[in-house]
Specification:
The complex is a heterodimer of chains A (299) and B (253). With 299 residues, chain A is mainly α. Chain A has twelve helices and no strands. Chain A has one domain. Classes of the chains: A mainly alpha (299), B alpha/beta (253).
């Protein structure tokens, strides 16, 4: 039971890191990124492949974040000159392309067979019983760091401009600033967080394969930030805890309620999330933790 | 001395000629108006001059440099800035932050500087904040500094837009219908501020629909009709011009 709770917590924390990145993109910059899972996948595979080649895990994880951020750069240069709706399509295409490459380039990724035997985080110095606990603790610290980072970024002059881009891009240009530059930086920063999340996924599960990186993951993260409240960091935390906690926790329900098959249960879970999302949009469109007010001015 | 000169400028949308061989100039330190009926091409003129719409032919020169092909934000950096007919405030940011966002060349806009030059960024912020408070006081917006800009009245939004431009310390500002949708009390205030800025040396060009208010404050104006400039001169002489009366007022007056 305890082990299971830790597993749920790790799942939540990996999603939370992803959600912080997406929150920076959508909540604060207004970028409609439907391909977030692509950065997640790039991070996972980068760190997995490097560590399988003998690179120390902390180094490979840092490389994963950097590589995912770099992958966002050309995407930004191409897509950010387009309107926001086109960006949605381009990013979705990007993440699917990433998945296709992972599936077909077998010499590198072993394709659909996936990559087994990825070194476990802390495998060297924690006992098998406590490894998960340590991973959870590290993830907690990393998420706290990400929260602090985004908080500082949002409060900075840079953060002010990306929020201005979100509110009115044309006016930003009229002030002599190039919105594409700011959008690219925001995209890269958020992608870096997603890449780091991918690295955690790889070194926690020790096995990754392309089907872990389907678009559904992107939309789960979208649901999480919409539930929690767009443009609110507390909303990111609450949204992912609720969503992933529910997704994982509801597996239990079947143990107590008879007569439901595994497949039926999966559908029921998605159905409940759908209903919850509709209710939030209808009755609390700003999200559970959102409010209608704006960024607070520094004292 | 000519600051902004527009020569033989034309722009078409499909088959429609929105601007047809427009030539005009704005002298340094001048306050000049451009009037015309709906669809006369005034807003298109501003959009071409500021780079939002490319011209089909013609040339825009600013401070003795050809800027016809220069990107929008680069023109702004050279000192040529504009407002919009419908205000484009950053609605979720406070009035204060709207102004702060406009400050040019902020080091804190670079992510690296946030890490490695924190003290300088903070100093710069303090300097910009001081300037923002000065300008908000000048524009009589201090009271609403902490309000989200989206909640302001139409007239206050126009004042805020003007304030944001002033953060850039521009050499020439183009105001697109500053008095449209503004209540009469604020119109007085707005035009007083514009005149005051001009007296301090800022070059201003105004597109306006509100003929009375514009004629009161500008010493010189152009009249446009169907994409062409049809008259130029002091308001009195322009308004007495037969062609202008024909085009602008349908010959009623």
């Amino acid at each position: 039971m305890e082990a299971y709770l830790i597993a749920i917590a790790i799942g939540i924390l990996i999603y939370m890191l992803l959600a912080f990145g997406l929150s920076l993109h959508y909540g604060f910059t207004g970028l409609i990124n439907f391909g977030h899972v692509g950065f997640f996948a790039i991070g996972a595979y980068t760190s997995a492949l490097l560590s399988l080649k003998g690179v120390p895990v902390p180094v490979s994880m840092a490389a994963a974040a950097a590589f995912a951020a770099l992958a966002a750069y050309p995407l930004g240069m191409i897509a950010l000159r387009l309107g926001s709706d086109y960006l949605a399509i381009v990013t979705l295409g990007f993440s699917e392309s990433v998945r296709m490459v992972l599936q077909t380039e077998e010499w590198l990724t072993r394709g659909m067979h996936g990559l087994p035997g990825i070194p476990r985080l802390f495998a060297g110095w924690a006992s098998p019983q406590t490894v998960d606990l340590w991973i959870m603790v590290l993830l907690l610290a990393v998420n706290a760091g990400a929260l602090l980072l985004i908080h500082l970024v949002i409060r900075s002059p840079f953060g002010r401009v990306i929020e201005a881009v979100r509110d009115n891009e044309v006016a930003v240009r009229a002030l002599g600033k190039d919105p594409a530059k700011f959008k690219t930086r925001s995209l890269m920063l958020g992608a870096g967080l997603a890449g780091l999340a991918g690295a955690f996924q790889a070194h926690y599960l020790t096995f990754i394969s392309p089907e872990q990186f389907v678009p559904l993951i992107t939309f789960y993260i979208w649901i999480a930030i919409i539930l929690g409240g767009v443009g609110r960091l507390s909303g990111v935390v609450a949204g992912t805890v609720l969503l992933v906690g529910f997704l994982e926790g509801s597996r239990f329900v079947r143990d107590f309620v008879g007569g439901i098959s595994e497949v039926q249960m999966a559908s029921v879970r998605i159905g409940i999330i759908g209903i919850a999302l509709i209710c939030v949009v209808l009755y609390r469109p700003q999200g559970l933790f959102g409010n209608t007010s704006t960024r607070r001015r520094k004292a | 001395m000519t600051l902004l000169s527009i020569t033989g400028l034309s722009a078409s949308f499909g088959g429609f000629k929105a601007l047809d061989d427009v030539t005009l100039e704005v002298r340094k330190g001048e306050l000049v108006g451009v009037i015309g009926t709906n669809g006369a091409g005034k807003s298109t003129l501003f959009s071409v001059v500021t780079g939002y719409i490319p011209p089909t032919t013609g040339c825009v020169r600013f401070a003795d440099e050809d800027i016809t092909g220069v990107a929008v934000h680069q023109r702004v950096r050279r000192g040529l800035a504009r407002t919009f007919q419908v205000p484009r405030e950053f609605s979720q940011l406070t009035v204060f932050d709207n102004m702060m966002a406009a400050a040019p060349d902020q080091r804190g806009e670079k992510l690296m500087a946030l890490v490695f030059a924190r003290r300088e960024v903070a100093r710069e912020e303090a300097r910009h904040a001081e300037r923002v408070h000065e300008l908000l006081a000048f524009l009589n917006l201090s009271r609403v500094a902490d309000e989200p800009a989206g909640k302001l009245s139409g007239g206050q939004k126009k004042l805020l837009e003007l304030g944001r431009l002033l953060m850039l310390e521009p050499r020439c500002i183009l105001l697109d219908e500053p008095f449209a949708g503004v209540n009469p009390v604020l119109i007085e205030e707005l035009s007083a501020r514009i005149v005051e800025l001009n007296q301090r040396g800022l070059t201003v060009a105004i597109i306006e629909h509100n003929l009375d208010e514009l004629a009161r404050i500008v010493p010189r104006m152009y009249v446009m009709d169907r994409g062409r400039v049809i008259a130029e001169g002091a308001p009195d002489s322009v308004l007495a011009n037969e062609r202008v009366r024909e085009a602008y007022m349908g010959g009623v007056i």
